[in-house]
Each structure stands twice: as C-alpha cells, then as structure tokens.
Write a structure and sequence with these properties.
Blueprint (H helix, E strand, L loop, with lengths): L7 H10 L1 H8 L11 E4 L7 E4 L2 E2 L1 H5 L4 H4 L3 E7 L5 E5 H17 L7 E5 L4 H13 L2 E4 L6 H11 L3 E5 L1 E4 L2 E4 L1 H10 L6 E5 L13 E3 H7 L10 E2 L5 E5 L7 E5 L2 H13 L8 E4 L6 H13 L3 E6 L14 H9 L1 E6 L1 H7 L17 E5 L5 H11 L3 E4 L10 E2 L16 E2 L4 E5 L14 E6 L9 E2 L3 H8 L9 E9 L5 E6 L3 E4 L2 E4 H9 L4 E11 L3 E10 L8 H18 L8 E5 L12 H8 L13 H13 L1
Bound molecules: adenosine-5'-monophosphate-propyl ester (PRX).
The site of adenosine-5'-monophosphate-propyl ester has 20 residues, from helix 11, strand 20, strand 26 and strand 27.
Length: about 650
C-alpha cells in the first residue's frame, strides 16, 4: 500500500516501472465480484485489456456498495435554476429509482450489450438511466442535449440503439427547448429505427407520442415501483459506454470504454487527484453529454461515496428565475461542497459579475476548484484564485482518456501549480513530446511538439472506436511517422521543472466554450446549403468562449456577392441550417462570403493560414499556396468588419 509519505515522483515512477503491481493496488479501491487474474494484457498493441478475468459492475460500485454504510446519506442532489426544482436522493433512494429505470428498460426488451441512447437535459432521470444501463450491462450512449437532429441522427445510426431515453424538453436561460420534435426528426433522418423511446414528461412542452414506439417514464415507473433488479456481473473488459467526439472527419467517433478499468481509474482519480472523500459533496458544473459529466458528475463522485450535484441552468441564474451571479456559491455553502469542477469559460462568465458575489456565501467547505476542457488563461486563473482563496487546479485530458492526463495529484503529495500549466503527467500515462515532422522525441525544455502517449495506456482510457478498430489505430496511433504512439493532437511544451503547457490543437478540432467541435462537421452542414459551393470553417480566438467558429463560404453564383441584403439573408439562413443540423453550439459567429478559398497547389484547404489571418497573426509559410489573392480576400473581409 502506498504510504502517505510517498512523493508524487516516486508514486508516478512506480506506475510506470511496475504497472501491474501499481494497478493491482489501485484496483482495491473498488468492489470486485470475481477477482481478476491478469492486470494488464498488452499482447496486441495498441489494444489494452485491464483486469482480465475480473467481474464487477459500475452501478454496484456507484450505488449498491454504499448502502451498507451510507444508505441515508445524500447521493444525487438535483438542482434546476430553470424550473426552481431542488431535490436530494439518498443512496437508498437512488438505488430504488435506478432499479425502477432498469426494470423499465428491461420491460422494453433491453438486454446486456444492447445500446441505449440517452438524449436528455440535466435532470435526475438522466442519471437514473445511465446507472440503470450500467446495472443491466446495457451500453449507454449519451448525446449532448444541445445537439440538433442531424448530429443526433448520425449517432443513432452509429450506435443502433434498441431504446432511446429522452424528455419533452430542456430549458436554457428560462427558454424552453423542446427535445421531442428534434428527436422525432432525428429518428426520421436515421436509417436505424429504435424499438422504443422512453420519455420523461417534465410538462415543459407538449409532446406528440408515436403509438407503439413512445412510452412515458411516468407510466413505466409506476408499473415497476417495487422492482428489484440485481446488478449484472460484467467482465472487466465489457463495454460500459460509448460517447461521441469530434475529430478531423465529419463522422463523429464513438469513444468506447470498458467497465473495470474505468471504475478503477475513476476511484483512483477521486482519491489521488480530486481528494474527494466519502460523505462529502462534489459539484461539477459540466453536462452529462460530455466526458466530464460521465466521469465527474455521475460515476467518479458516486464511486467515491460522495454526494454529487447535478445542476441544470446558467451560472448566473437564481432559483426564482431572477439573475443571481452567486448561485453556484450558494450551492457550495448549502451543500458544503468540498471539491468543485468547472471550465474556464464559466469562470470568464462569472468574471463579468460583481466580485462581491464571491464573498456573499460561506465557502469554507471548499478545498479546491478544478478547471478543464480548454486552456486556462492566467488572468482568469488569478481572478478566481484570489476570489475563492482555494487552489485552482487546471487539468488537461480528453474524451478519449476519460480522466486527467496532466495535472497535479494533491491527494498523493501537495504540489504547487504553475499558472498557465495544467501540470505534470499523471500516474500511468507515459507522456512524450515529439517533433511534428520527424517524430523524434524532444528532450530539451521548452521545445514545442505534439503531446503523445506511449502504450500501454492506463485503465479508463478508451478501448477503441466503437465498431471500428481500424479507425482507432489509424487515427490515433499512426499519425507520427515510424512510431506507434497515441497522438492527443495537441501542441505542448515542457519546462525545465517538467510542467507541461498546452498550446492548442494540431488538427481541425476547435473548442468553443469548452465544447469540442469538428470544423468538418460544420463545413458539411454549411455546404449542404443549395447556394454554397465551398466553405472553410476555422476556430478564432475569443475573449469569452476561448474560440468561436468563423465560416468563409464561396457561393455558386458569385454575382450574389454584390447584393448586401441577399448575403445578409443568406448568412442568417446558413446559421439556421447549422442550428438545425448540429445545434446552436456549433453555429459560426459569422459567415463571410468570398470568391475563392486559399488552398495548396494540391487542393488542400489552408485552414491554419485562414485562422492566422482572422487572429491578426502572420500566416506563416505560404510557399505551397496556389492563389495568394484568396487569402488577401479573407484579410480584406476580416479587416472590413
Ligand atoms: O485541446 C485539448 C483541450 O480539449 C481537448 C479535449 O476535449 P474533450 O474531448 O471535450 O475533453 C475534455 C475533457 C476535460 C484537448 O485535446 N483541453 C482539455 N483540457 C485542457 C485543454 N486545453 C488546455 N488546457 C486544459 N486543461
């Protein structure tokens, strides 16, 4: 067992030098129904199988195993400043609700290995649905509620769910967003048809039910009030869920995760990184549609025996519908939150508020604020650090990794953070910086390279791309010439003390308010407009959102460019189209019209050059550019506004 005196350096080194012993020790943090007989199977790189032979269950570890000691302790605290609802479920109550949901899913024919797609707002039933799937061994696939029909349809086709769980509506900033029509349209667009749709009726928006397909959760729950559904014991390597994420192609990737490795990774991270203790309250402001929501709203805190707050609403909205820039701090005080997790964007929103709001509530329970998802700029970090008086812990990771890759592990050893750096490699991760073109390892401090991982990747890391091993290998493990390493597709540097700094993506992924979006998906939506011939979408730095999408479109009929009113109308139409296909999160800030796009002689779009011009930077080496006038046109358009 690790002694408390162990330095982080020694702890990390142990994880790299003796991975089997290290991870066997971490595995003791969860319950196993059947012990594993092999810690790490890395016979077929880059595929890793953790804890082979072992059987466990995520829902058992998150809920059932706590009944003995903390049945009446808060488990799920649901707070909605959109509807004014606030409700606490104890572990015992959560156990009951999850079983009702599990029984309802089973009644709809869901069996072990079947997919259940969850398209829901931040309501307690979404947590019940995720945990119920884990309980019965169904694979959940949560799709962010902010995505629209087109995105949803492509995920339905890829996941081929037997059942979809959804709701009548979500609400944002007091405005009802009807989900059911978006879902119906998505099902109409998809080739795959679910057998049933289970709907939570919040009575926010009218819902037309499709006979024979649509079922109301209220009805099914009523039929299964006393349901007892035991946990299905699953192989450690059984798939727990898939979550879609954006990459360089328009087709989203289903990041697939196992059961045992994920449970161990989360339990270990709750202890070593988040320093979260059973009986305390954890508050992550993310959404269940993102990986942070999976790992640190639902599974991580519950596995650790903590209460978790699920918050629906904006950071600046009070429970009574009026503005309240201190709502989150009110929750910290009320529920004695010890660890909080948010994104830099949210802090930048709060920064616009009166700083006195940070002093309005008793925040003495709070030990740290964790921030992730996008680069944390120094002014934002300093503002919130000064305001809260607790350590601000930046942590860098990805949907693919499932838990932090770079940060500081204060649960192992208190380590100072450096502004601008998420920190050092976490245990189990063999992090390297490689030269982009040659693939050579960069060993000197402050050299810029691509952040990569050498295998075997640690527990909790993605197993593969859902139903596409070739895509997993080719996309992630073959991007560096001559080496099989996992690419994060992020630029980074490491200073002389071993702290990493992340400098943005090497690919066409952009990060808008902490939401990861593929520019290709947005381009595909825009080029579907009948008047658009070609389009380039780039991410441009934005003071509040980190980045925003900017679109440059070439029209089929160039004469339209002369008509200001027509192009303005077209810009509106294109934005509406993106809203309808992908959702408002993906809507470009502006659509600008040009007669040509800058490309290389071989026809490759020069997105980096466009981005540089939009950000007022030097466009770099343009020797391969085919038509310099095209870039000049973009420069003119940008400077004209
Ligand atoms: O570019 C990095 C950025 O977000 C990407 C991963 O996004 P996603 O898959 O949505 O997972 C978010 C999990 C927290 C990364 O490739 N990113 C994430 N965290 C940071 C970050 N960039 C800088 N600093 C961070 N702390």
């Amino acid at each position: 067992m690790s002694s408390t005196a162990e330095t982080y350096k020694a702890f990390y080194q142990r994880s790299i030098d003796q991975p089997d012993a290290f991870w066997a020790e971490q595995a003791q943090l969860i319950d196993w129904h059947k012990p594993f007989n092999r810690v790490c199977n890395y016979d077929k790189p880059p595929f890793v199988h953790w804890y082979e032979g072992g059987q466990t269950n995520l829902c058992h570890n998150a809920v059932d195993r706590h009944l003995k000691d903390r049945a009446n302790q808060a488990a799920l605290i649901y707070v909605s400043s959109e509807t004014g609802q606030e409700k606490t479920y104890t572990f015992a109550e959560l156990h009951v609700e999850v079983q009702r949901m599990a029984a309802s899913l089973k009644a709809l024919g869901v069996q072990k290995g079947d997919r259940v797609l969850i398209y829901m707002p931040m309501i307690a039933e979404a947590a019940f649905a995720m945990l119920a799937c884990a309980r019965i061994g169904a694979i959940h696939c949560v799709v962010f509620g902010g995505f629209a029909s087109g995105s949803l349809a492509s995920r339905i086709d890829d996941a081929t769910p037997k059942v979809i769980v959804s709701a009548d509506a979500g609400s944002r900033g007091g405005k009802v967003v009807a989900y059911k029509p978006l879902l119906d349209e998505a099902i109409r667009l998809s080739r795959h048809q679910p057998e049933s749709v289970l709907l939570v009726d919040r009575k926010l928006a009218p819902m037309a039910l499709v006979a024979g397909r649509d079922q109301l959760w209220g009805d099914l729950r009523q039929q299964h009030l006393d349901a007892q559904v035991p946990c299905e014991w699953l192989d450690s390597t059984a798939i727990s869920y898939t979550i879609y994420t954006s990459g360089t192609t328009g087709k989203p990737k289903g990041v697939q995760r196992d059961t045992g490795g994920y449970a161990v990774a989360l339990a270990a991270s709750m202890k070593h990184i988040f320093d979260g203790r059973a009986g305390e309250t954890y508050f992550s402001t993310s959404d269940i549609g993102w990986v942070v929501g999976h790992s640190y709203i639902i599974y991580g805190p519950l596995i650790a025996g903590m209460a978790t707050i699920m918050y629906e609403g904006l950071p600046t909205q009070g429970m009574d519908g009026h503005a309240d820039g201190a709502i989150w701090w009110r929750l910290v005080e009320k529920y004695k939150v010890t660890a909080m997790f948010s994104a830099p964007t949210a802090v930048r929103v709060l920064k616009k508020q009166d700083p006195a709001l940070l002093k309005k509530h008793d925040l003495s329970s709070l030990r740290a604020l964790f921030l992730a998802g996008e680069p944390l700029d120094e002014p934002t970090a300093r503002w919130i650090s000064d305001g809260l008086g607790v350590p601000i812990i930046d942590n860098y990771w990805q949907t693919e990794t499932g838990w932090p890759l770079l940060t500081v592990a204060n649960g192992v050893e208190r380590t100072p953070s450096k502004f601008g750096s998420p920190g050092v490699p976490m245990y189990g991760y063999r992090v390297k910086l490689l030269h982009e073109a040659t693939g050579e390892e960069l060993t000197q401090p402050n050299e810029k390279g691509v952040v990569v991982l050498e295998g075997p990747t640690p527990p909790g890391f993605m197993q593969t791309v859902w139903q596409d091993d070739a895509r997993f290998v080719n996309t992630y493990w073959k991007s560096v010439p001559g080496k099989m390493v996992y690419s994060t597709f992020d630029w980074g540097i490491r200073d002389e003390d071993g702290y990493y700094f992340i400098l943005g993506r090497t690919d066409d992924v952009i990060n808008v308010a902490g939401h990861r979006l593929g520019t290709r998906e947005i381009e595909e939506s825009i080029s579907g407009h009948p008047l658009v011939a070609e389009v380039a979408v780039v991410g441009v730095a934005d003071a509040l959102k980190g980045q925003v999408a900017m679109a440059f479109a070439v029209l089929k009929d160039a004469s339209l460019l002369q008509d200001g009113a027509a192009t303005l109308k077209l810009e509106g139409e294109i934005m509406k189209r993106v809203d309808g296909d992908l959702g408002a999160v993906a809507r470009p800030a502006r659509v600008r019209f040009v007669t040509a796009l800058p490309k290389t002689r071989s026809g490759k779009l020069l997105r980096r050059a466009i981005q540089a011009v939009c950000e007022g930077r030097d466009a770099g080496d343009l020797t391969t550019m085919d038509d310099p006038a095209a870039l000049q046109q973009i420069r003119d358009r940008v400077s004209a506004s």
